[in-house]
Amino acid sequence: FYRIPKALFQEPRFQSLSTDAKTLYGILLDRMSLSVKNGWLDEQNRVFIIFTIEDVKRTLCCADNKATKLLRELEKFGLIERKRRGLGKPNLVYVKNFSAESSKSIFQNRDFHDSGGFKNASQDPSKSRCNKTKENDTEMSETDPFYSEEADGMCKRTQLEEYFSQSLEIDLLLRLCPDDEDTIYQIVDLLVDTCATNRKLLRIAGDDKPAEVVRSRFMKLNADHIRFVLKCLAENRSPIRNMKQYLLASLYNAPTTMQLSYQN
């Protein structure tokens, strides 16, 4: 079961925080316990978790837009902090403590860092980042099926991140489409995950296609294709039940669809 601090329900300043966001905070707190156990520390000795939008969707059985909204809610109320690690890499999430007289007892037996997250001073941070326990491996394997474990294929992923950063002109896209920042990073994550996978077949638009064919097509995408996908997404009026599959199909078909749209 998950524990949700009662201050989130009793403190006036949290009254406008949605119940789903409060539930998500409890889930993130629970995940923090695992990170503490496995010694996941950043360079500032702060404990972090990796909990992507896909993780939120799967855990709460919600759509992409709602998952994004819930994470932003928690950020707005100062309950979490997200740190980007570079293109293709999932964000680091710091679960923040909140100072309130009624909530001190909740955290008084935990070593919370004032700047965000738990503090584990007894462990060398340089060693803790490489500490991969069996429980941690199990936890990571239950996340996005495209994701390889962080210890495997890192060099390949790094190369893919750098490649897509340049080929898609991500910095330019972010300046031109600031409102689509989350979607742009989600697209990059998806491209990296897909191209790094060891699967032989990938499902695109309901069909199983050879992974090499999909990879080859994705590696030929450019910034114009991404802007076209973002435009189609903004103009879509039908409910999207599976954002990942929608984006995969849109990205795969973007070169052909974009050319046809210009011809018409």
UniProtKB/TrEMBL annotation:
This is Replication initiator A domain-containing protein. Residues 1-74 form the Replication initiator A N-terminal domain. Residues 161-262 form the DUF6017 domain. Coiled coil: none annotated. Residues 114-145 are annotated as: Disordered. It comes from Faecalibacterium prausnitzii.
